[in-house]
Amino acid sequence: MPDPPPKRPLRALHVIDSLSLGGAQTVLLNFAKHWKPHEIVMHVATMHGDGFFAQQLRNSGIPVFSLSRKKFPPSYLWNLPKLLAKNRYDIAHFHLFGANWIGKPIAKFLKTPCIIAHDHCNDHARNSLFPLLLDRLTNPLAHAILAVSESTRQFLLSKEKLPPEKVHLVYNGIDTDQFKPTPNRSPLSRKDRPPPSSILLQKFGIPPSATIIGGVGRLAPQKNFTLWLHTAAALLEDFPQIFFLIAGEGPELPRLQKLAKKLNIDKKVIFTGFLADRVSLYGCLDILLLTSHYEGLPMTILEAMAAGIPIVSSNIDGPAEILTNQLDALLVSPNQPTLFVSAVKSLLSNPSLASNLAANARRKVCQHFNASKQAQKVLEIYHKVLFSQKTPP
User: What is the fold, at CATH topology level, of the domain defined by 195-368?
Assistant: First the structure.
């Protein structure tokens, strides 16, 4: 008898609020790079607009659909059902709040075989009534919910009363071949920066030999860049030669720029705006400083670990799950400016400590948090859900 025909690849539509800079968008790009064409036919839809990652995904061969030119009028309300009905996807996978709240009911109505909600952040703002209510109404429509950290998973179990078998822990992963330490350069060496990083520093008027502390992320209240700037001001009192880079965009930019000027550190703090080349960015940094109020599992932490950058981070949720204080990072109680200052000073005064932390962090991220493992685990969840639904591709 002839062999049975091979199974076709799964058809998956990933829907996300936008494709501008962010950790969830990086996750999508990693999926595109690590899923094989015979496993997944991946499409991406953004609720509104386009964004930097849209072109990155297209360069990887992924079709990208913009469901609405802007948030209003909300063309996604009719364009998303049309897209789902036309292509009859096996999987509808939703990222970020808007896509999840709007998309899951539509996918359920159209009887999409596998509906996935991806929770990228343990966002305590959801303790407010309206967002928490929307989550409680729509998350039961999903066949599986992916949580990027155990704290995020516990939040979903305790606050939304979801069944444990439905909520899967899937840590973020990164391409550890893309983000890696600069050869022959140790943390705080203040020399031997790779050419792209040196060019970036020249663009911002920073000497290549300068010690540079960086902050990376959306300029939003969650990231607590107010404390970050106060930490910078205190450090400059004892280390006036240091420069500070804040890479990212967001609604708090004007206020943070005014604060830097008020603290008289605006000549030492550079707001870079959006930087597409994050590899070169990490090549500039000697220390990564993260002062967030809350996080899921920030890609910034994983990228810095892979790039061999010593980390000082708030001792919160996701970061505290994967980092061990004094072993591969320095963890500080949140909202304690003096403790952040002390932690950074200990790295500046002890290069061997910085080097050991960075080396340990690099080993850990390569072993446990690479993008290939993340993509494979998500693929296994797809198959498990489809098998349980008795809807083989």
Answer: Rossmann fold (3.40.50)
